[in-house]
Design brief:
The structure is a single chain. This protein is α+β, with helices and mostly antiparallel strands. Helix content is about 15%, strand content about 40%. The strands form three sheets. The protein has a seven-stranded antiparallel beta sheet with strand order 3-2-6-9-10-5-4, with helices on both faces. A hairpin with a 5-residue loop joins strand 7 and strand 8. The longest helix has 12 residues. It is globular and about 50 Å long.
């Protein structure tokens, strides 16, 4: 079912319930393979498999990071904790144009893929993208986890959970 087949009545019934579907808050980080790197706020991240460990990450098709992920096939997600959610929302909430530094004033580390990991996050997962598929206005990437790093907030914090007011917008 696509947005165009829903009546206004259906949208009004679906929006508040869909919006209350809880999700974590993550910072998806990637490189373009040519020395540029970026990060974006992502809330549609979910574990998709145990063996091998795979997570799914949904990215709006309008974002240039889609092309980067398809080309380089590597990425990381850093889990945002409650205590630093304000910092990360402020830094990554609006996204970045290509070429704009994404990690100013944010401490990063590097794991096995070389993609930036946020040092002050709850923790980070990184790996290789095994495949992707289109899902309406988003692309779902499947990231096979090859490395996990606890962040400085891991022992003293808990993951931030996000609830939206409307299931049809961020």
């Amino acid at each position: 079912m696509t947005d165009s087949v829903l009546t206004d009545e259906q949208r009004n019934q679906i929006a508040p319930i869909l919006g209350k579907t809880p999700s974590g808050v993550f910072i998806l980080t990637a490189t373009d393979g040519e020395g540029n790197e970026t990060g974006m706020l992502a809330s549609w991240v979910q574990q998709a498999a145990f063996e091998p460990p795979i997570i799914s990450v949904a990215v709006n098709t309008k974002r240039y990071i889609n092309e980067w992920l398809q080309r380089t096939q590597i990425a990381a997600v850093s889990l945002v904790g409650k205590s630093n959610s304000g910092t990360f929302f402020k830094q990554f909430g609006k996204g970045f144009d290509p070429g704009v530094p994404a990690f100013e004033r944010i401490e990063i580390t590097r794991g096995t893929t070389g993609v930036p990991l946020l040092a002050d996050a709850f923790g980070s997962l990184e790996g290789k993208i095994t495949h992707h598929c289109e899902a309406g206005d988003h692309t779902i990437f499947f990231l096979q986890i090859e490395n996990a790093v606890t962040g400085s907030a891991f022992d003293a914090d808990e993951p931030y959970v996000h609830i939206r007011k409307n299931g049809f917008s961020y």
